[in-house]
């Protein structure tokens, strides 16, 4: 018998050209003063921001811009954004950008009604959030984090080198505008890193202790789609039809993992990201093979068979080895350089990274129990 609990209160609009409807959608939501939350460069250099502001001029809406979101955003950026919202009486947040911009946008929206700093609400303290925030429209420019459909916002504390998430139903966007056009200008390396993040979300959702009959087909379809199309996108960055496939897969993997949680790869990728300051998808990839080797040992034949088929492994004979090989091949095609030592991490950092892992939500949903010793061993293998 199966039990599951599924809740995702986001209206999702998916399709090429929908980003130009963001002003109209803002108006339909009753907005009078909006804050666009984005990164420093991308939206400006592509001309998307200028075009968007131009379209907003057709509506009785005041537009403010907050373009202070760096990659791997520190928590105080959220506090700064929330101050602007309060002083300007903003009534809708429009987040456009990669996972960092969207994570900050939704955290700002909820922080508006919370005392203290947003860092008071990370990890186990997310359950202290008792007030809904203001509405949000989120539009991703990467196909990876799926922040636009999840209840997660990941932030960094630079002083303590912690990278932790806020997880709460109030973080769900009001509306997700998911437009493959916005991902067209994503550079080659970032296309690979964010696509791998989506691939690993699918993998970890499928393996999570909370995986169920609703999320499993979504995770497997996403896994199969990304495995097939991410290398093609990587070699044909201008192909919007291929971008659409990976973005679709990222969306459904997000719908799956926001219900199931993730696992050991994300539990380690977060502290690794905080130490090495490398893109999240890359941090995930570096640790994937050793975590999966550990997890594969306890999986049922059904799980291994389904995972194998998604990656083109059609028989159970040496399926585990061949699954690992298929994933290693994907990393190789995408020119991923493995090895923690290549990214400034020192052997003596490994115990500290291992100690951080249990603070993440993902640690608890790994299919096989993790301990400090196990995690340290995995880190040594990934070194
Ligand atoms: Fe991720």
TrEMBL record:
User: Do you know which InterPro entries this protein is assigned to?
Assistant: ADH_Fe/GldA, ADH_Fe_C, ADH_Fe_CS, Alcohol_dehydrogenase_Fe
Q: Where is the Alcohol dehydrogenase iron-type/glycerol dehydrogenase GldA domain?
A: 9-180
CDD domains for this protein: Fe-ADH-like
Q: What is this protein called?
A: Iron-containing alcohol dehydrogenase
Q: Does the keyword Lyase apply?
A: no
Q: Recorded GO terms, molecular function?
A: alcohol dehydrogenase (NAD+) activity; metal ion binding
Q: Which part of the chain is the Fe-containing alcohol dehydrogenase-like C-terminal domain?
A: 191-383
Q: Which cofactor does it need?
A: Fe cation
Q: Keyword Kinase, does the record have it?
A: no
Which domain of life does the UniProt lineage start with?
A: Bacteria
SUPFAM superfamilies the UniProt entry points to:
Dehydroquinate synthase-like
Question: What is the similarity comment for this entry?
Answer: Belongs to the iron-containing alcohol dehydrogenase family.
- Please name one Pfam family that this protein belongs to: Fe-ADH
Arranged from A to Z, the UniProt key words for this protein are:
NAD, Oxidoreductase
């Amino acid at each position: 018998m199966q039990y599951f609990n599924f809740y995702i209160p986001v209206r999702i609009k998916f399709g090429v050209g929908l980003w130009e409807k963001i002003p109209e959608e803002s108006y339909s939501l009753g907005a009078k003063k909006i804050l666009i939350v984005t990164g420093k460069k991308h939206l400006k250099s592509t001309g998307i921001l200028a075009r968007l502001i131009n379209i907003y001029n057709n509506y009785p809406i005041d537009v403010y811009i907050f373009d202070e979101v760096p990659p791997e955003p520190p928590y105080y950026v959220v506090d700064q954004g929330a101050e602007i919202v309060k002083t300007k009486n903003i009534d809708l947040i429009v987040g456009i950008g990669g996972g960092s911009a969207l994570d900050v946008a939704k955290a700002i929206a909820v922080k508006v009604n919370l005392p203290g700093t947003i860092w008071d609400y990370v990890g186990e303290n997310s359950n202290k959030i008792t007030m809904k925030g203001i509405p949000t429209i989120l539009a991703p420019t990467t196909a990876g984090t799926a922040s636009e459909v999840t209840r997660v916002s990941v932030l960094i504390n630079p002083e303590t080198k912690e990278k932790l998430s806020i997880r709460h139903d109030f973080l769900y966007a009001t509306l997700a505008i998911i437009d493959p056009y916005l991902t067209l200008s994503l550079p080659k390396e970032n296309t690979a890193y964010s696509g791998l993040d989506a691939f690993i979300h699918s993998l970890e959702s499928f393996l999570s202790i909370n995986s169920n009959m609703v999320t499993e087909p979504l995770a497997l379809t996403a896994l199969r789609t990304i495995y097939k199309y991410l290398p093609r996108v990587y070699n044909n960055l201008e192909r919007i039809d291929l971008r659409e496939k990976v973005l679709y897969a990222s969306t459904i993997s997000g719908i799956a993992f926001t219900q199931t949680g993730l696992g050991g790869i994300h539990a380690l990728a977060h502290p690794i990201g905080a130490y090495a300051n490398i893109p999240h998808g890359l941090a995930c990839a570096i640790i994937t093979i050793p975590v999966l080797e550990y997890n594969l040992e306890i999986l049922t034949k059904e799980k291994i068979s389904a995972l194998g088929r998604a990656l083109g492994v059609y028989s159970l004979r040496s399926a585990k080895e061949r699954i690992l090989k298929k994933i290693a091949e994907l990393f190789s095609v995408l020119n991923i350089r493995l090895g923690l030592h290549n990214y400034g991490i020192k052997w003596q950092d490994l115990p500290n990274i291992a100690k951080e892992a249990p603070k993440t939500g993902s640690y608890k949903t790994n299919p096989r129990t993790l301990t400090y010793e196990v995690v340290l061993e995995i880190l040594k293998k990934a070194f």
